[in-house]
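User: Hi! I'm working on a homework problem where we have to compare a predicted structure to a textbook description. Could you give me the structure for the chain below?
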Amino acid sequence: MLTTYGRSSGVCVDPIEKKPLHHFLPGTPVFSFGTAGCNLACRFCQNWDISKSKDDDTLADAASPEAIAEAAAGMGCRSVAFTYNDPTVFLEYAIDVADACHARGLATVAVTAGYIEPRPREDLFAHIDAANVDLKGFTDDFYRHVCGARLQPVLETLEYLVHETDVWVELTTLLIPGQNDSEAELEAMTTWVREHLGPDVPMHFSAFHPDYRMRDVPPTPAATLTRARDIAIGNGVRHAFTGNVSDEVGGSSWCHACGGLLIARDRYELGEFHVRVDESGAAACAHCAAPLPGRFEQRAGEWGAQRVPVRMRHRPSAALGVPAEPEVSA
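Assistant: Happy to help. Predicted structure tokens:
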């Protein structure tokens, strides 16, 4: 029984780049929410207060699927993200929210570790428009001893998403010093991505900071992220990014064909936008017309780095399923 159905641990309007998704509706606001719990046990979890919580008090907001869709549309969001904890553990709730969002013309985003069996995987991702999947490392030893999981099911999920669905996919790896950041592992990971997923799946390499049960590990140097990005590009990944650091070169999108700047980024702030989108929605480099896979609009959004917390408040007499009155706090 899903005890978290209709209850959220927090709601916030974020930039879509924070998920991170760089080639999916860039510059637009995304309505982000999660529940509590997780099906992994990562020792480095950056959201451990939510993902490891067994306390009902964590679930502060009552939020029916219809209420979430109504609030997201009312705040001008282009999409709704299942994030903060993995939607795998609130799959039925996520599916109902996705249906309510699609009815209002909103896209859906899953931020997930991709650790899920084949049948529920089909059920979940049939309702998802874009996913950022954490590829946490590239050895089974790391997954088993640091994450409490296995690598192979994640790889199977990635191949399924890229080759058997229309979900737009981007990958994120949180690089932890001495754990998953060796040159050999990065070479193996990025080569696998290029060979099994193709060159157009973006990869994000993010900086770790000490947290949860890995407080004795130092933060990731920016040079490590740059090295990982260089390895990925060298192995044929066309769009590789650095994350959690200020790096205009590593955070921006560049054309693989002509080297021209496509989308300038500094963290979550967008600058120049040189992407042309035709009437069919196909995108291309504005400099050389090379195709650019992703989901783009004629111009980038202007949401910037804003983060707006939201409280979902029900009337005292309202039962679950009655639309909520969103209360926005600065």
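For your comparison, note the following. The chain has one domain: 7-248+305-328. The radius of gyration is 19 Å. Good luck with the assignment!
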